Every structure is written in structure tokens, then in C-alpha cells.
Recover the amino acids of this structure.
């Protein structure tokens, strides 16, 4: 195989297998090339990935030697995407009765969801995460997008138990915005004891749903390593019950009469 062809193939391999350690002998056998040639290829790929702000290749020490791709998203590209997202969400036609904002088109756009997942995953890439968790239903596409970059499985919390998922653990929690008592259910087989979890959701107002998921994880002796949301409501009337989270955007000043919305960059900008 020509070097140019091998570089394309190697790059595709890393993009499809993030955070997986692969030995140099594996690549040498796969491409029938000397390990020295493979090492030179990896230097080129690493340089381009960093130039494009998409991450880097991390060398792994050991007898066999190896490398793994650590996905990332440069601060400049992340901030540019968030600015574009804010502009998109400020469209007055998105205002719904009750002061809510229509976002289903964003959550249904594969390219947009992938970019959101890339930005959130980049913020968590240095953490040891075993699973991404979300609550049904709108957070599901975001959770899968984040999990694809972190190369971990997704666990979905539901409101009602499913017969096909076996025995479950359920808790009652108080919704932060409506103050209503609601139920969360998670199958016992979903998590290993002591798992490190990244919670992902599409929208957070007071944070009652995320607090409920945190309480549910305590029943599994799991550790909440990160919390990421697409959008949060910046409302002074609602007392936030969640701390140490990352949001992409803040929705502020939804004026139904004037048909105006103010959307600002979220906490992720300051965390970069």
C-alpha cells in the first residue's frame, strides 16, 4: 500500500476507534509495513490532527508499544460553533407557549448533534468515564453523540420500567421546576458497581432531573464524573440545585410579547 493510502486508512481507523490502545505490530502486520514506517505515519497524522484542532495521538509505553487517539475540539472551533448555535436559537419563531424554546430540529439534525457531542466530549476527554447516562427521551441523541467520541456505552434512565430490561431500581424525586414528585427507573444490569458516569441532558432549568439521576446512581455506588447539558435556563427565579456542570448555551430573557430571545454562551466557554 502506498503511504498516501495508508495515511488515509490509519486516520480513518483512529477516528472510528477513539481512546482505544492499538499496538504498532498490529498496524505493521495489517499494512505489511515496517514499524519504523508506521511510526513516521503516526507523526504525520498526529501533527495534522493537532493543526485541525481535532485531538492528538497519545503514545502508550510497554513491550509492544502502541498509540491511541484522544479526541478534542480546539477552543477556537468550539467557541465559533457555540456562537453559531446561539444565533440559531435566537430565532423568534422558536418561542413556544409558556416561554419554552423549540429545539427538536437541532436534536434531529445528525450533523448538529455530532458537533454538540464533539464539544461536550472534548471537555470530558481527560476524565476516566465508563458510561454516558441520560434520561428519555430528548437527551438520547446527545448521549450517543458524546459516547461515540468517548468510546463508551450509553445508559438510558426511563420514567417507567420495561419488561424486556429485567429487574430495575426506581427512585422518586422532586422536579426542580414544577416541584412535582416523579419517578426514575434504571435496570440493575445497566451499570457495574462503582462505574464512572457522565450525565448528559438536552435542557436544564432548576436541575431537578439531573439531581434525580445523581440520586439514582447512588443506588449503584456509581460516581458522577461529569455533567453536560446542551442548554440551561438562566432564570433568577429558579434556584439551581446542580453544581459543577457544563452547558453549551444559556437561554435568557424569553419575551413572548416582544418576540425576542437572548441566548448566551454557556459555562463551557469559561471552562475551556
Amino acid at each position: 500500500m502506498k503511504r498516501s493510502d495508508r495515511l488515509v486508512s490509519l486516520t480513518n481507523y483512529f477516528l472510528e476507534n477513539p481512546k482505544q490502545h492499538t499496538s504498532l505490530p498490529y498496524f505493521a502486520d495489517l499494512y505489511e509495513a515496517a514499524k519504523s514506517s508506521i511510526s513516521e505515519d503516526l507523526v504525520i497524522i498526529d501533527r495534522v490532527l493537532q493543526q485541525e484542532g481535532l485531538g492528538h495521538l497519545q503514545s502508550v509505553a510497554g513491550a509492544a508499544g502502541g498509540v491511541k487517539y484522544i479526541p478534542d475540539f480546539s477552543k477556537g472551533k468550539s467557541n465559533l460553533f457555540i456562537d453559531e448555535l446561539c444565533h440559531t436559537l435566537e430565532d423568534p419563531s422558536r418561542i413556544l407557549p409558556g416561554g419554552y424554546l423549540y429545539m427538536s430540529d437541532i436534536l434531529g439534525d445528525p450533523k448538529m448533534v455530532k458537533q454538540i457531542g464533539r464539544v461536550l466530549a472534548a471537555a470530558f476527554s481527560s476524565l476516566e468515564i465508563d458510561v454516558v447516562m441520560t434520561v428519555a427521551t430528548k437527551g438520547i441523541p446527545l448521549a450517543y453523540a458524546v459516547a461515540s467520541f468517548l468510546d463508551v456505552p450509553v445508559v438510558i434512565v426511563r420514567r417507567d420500567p420495561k419488561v424486556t430490561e429485567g429487574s430495575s431500581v426506581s427512585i422518586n424525586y422532586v422536579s426542580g421546576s414544577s416541584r412535582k414528585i416523579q419517578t426514575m427507573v434504571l435496570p440493575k444490569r445497566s451499570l457495574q458497581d462503582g462505574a464512572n458516569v457522565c450525565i448528559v441532558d438536552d435542557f436544564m432549568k432548576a436541575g431537578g432531573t439531573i439531581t434525580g439521576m445523581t440520586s439514582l446512581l447512588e443506588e449503584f455506588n456509581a460516581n458522577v464524573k461529569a455533567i453536560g447539558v446542551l442548554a440551561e435556563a438562566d432564570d433568577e427565579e429558579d434556584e439551581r440545585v446542580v453544581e459543577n456542570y457544563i452547558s453549551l448555551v444559556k437561554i435568557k430573557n424569553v419575551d413572548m410579547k416582544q418576540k425576542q430571545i437572548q441566548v448566551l454562551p454557556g459555562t463551557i466557554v469559561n471552562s475551556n
